[in-house]
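A quick word before the example. In earlier lectures we treated sequence and structure as two separate objects. From today on, think of them as two lines of the same record. Here is Cobalamin biosynthesis protein CobD written that way.
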Amino acid sequence: MRRPSLLRSPGSARALGLALGVAADLVLADPRRGHPVAGFGRVAARLERRLYADSRAAGAAYTAVLVGGAVLAGALGERRVGHGVRAVPAALLTAVATWAVLGGTSLVREGAALGRSLERGELEAARARIPHLCARDPALLDAAGMARAGVESLAENTSDAVVAPLFWGAVAGVPGLLGYRAVNTLDAMVGYRSPRHARFGWASARLDDLANLAPARLAAVLTAVAAPLVGGRPGAALAAWRRDAREHPSPNAGPVEAAAAGALGVRLGGRTEYAYGAEDRPALGSGPAPVPADLVRAARLSRAVGLLSAGAAVVLAAIMPAGRGRGEGQRGAGVSRSSVSGCRGRGVGSSSAEGSRSRPARASRRLALVSRPPRRCSTSSRTK
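And the structure line, produced from the sequence above:
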């Protein structure tokens, strides 16, 4: 008689792995040293020095090698643990990969700490934290500018560092988790309009835009759902999204930033200074400019959206249909039909990709990949 099991399908193992990975991020956050994303960033930087040329073709090859390698590593990992057959190892592998690519807890902590520094009037301490959130030059920002930069970065990075990885993990498992993080990290490193990367980074930016199309809109919906937790109204978040998002130069940062502005009752956008120049961004939301206290609220909103997205990802992973895992096919010979059918489950395979304004975002935190996973600052790949 077959014993009942909660992990009889690849989808169940994937769902459990995602939940465990989220829990690990909540407890452990990002490691101070030896972060896998930082290691990927160092590899990417070395490969850029070897392959760089001022052309889209060179950038496309660079992106294909790194993203393809990440997806392949995830697929080989799932195959090795017997995805679809050995449920517990598969769940643990998914949990480790999920923890490695998530950045929600560190993001919330940095945003809240920036808000507290500004509330205490500690401008130098606040400027020291800005690079952990976004790519703007802190020397050019006053207290109001840092408050706005922090709120915008929290909104965009909640989508990039939490909602999107969980979405791709639910849809495509470990290959989706690693592939998405590779795409987003490359966008943060080379997806800029600077003279060096305008052409070389084009493929990474476009791929990031594509990979974030669905997750960014999911993040905007969840932001509206969570609005009452920070004193806002879902209707105001949805109205700001519908009215203002299309004016933003990034197809993905626009929805999440506009929804956050509406949920918090503030106005985002305006002149934005980057190392390569300044941009005048359209207004998002109809309230007053954010103040330091709004950063603390934005951090709470980010945490709430992250938890809601985790729940949605677990449900999606559990119900997604999937074909037989490779391990099942290899074990099929010599196993009774009933045993094989008992191993079959639901899982998914599909890897993600996209290009962006991007990923939006490429926060200085992303530029600091040698020590931290990427975060981004309200920028889109081609608008950062």
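Notice the following. The chain has a mean pLDDT of 84. We will return to this example when we discuss secondary structure assignment.
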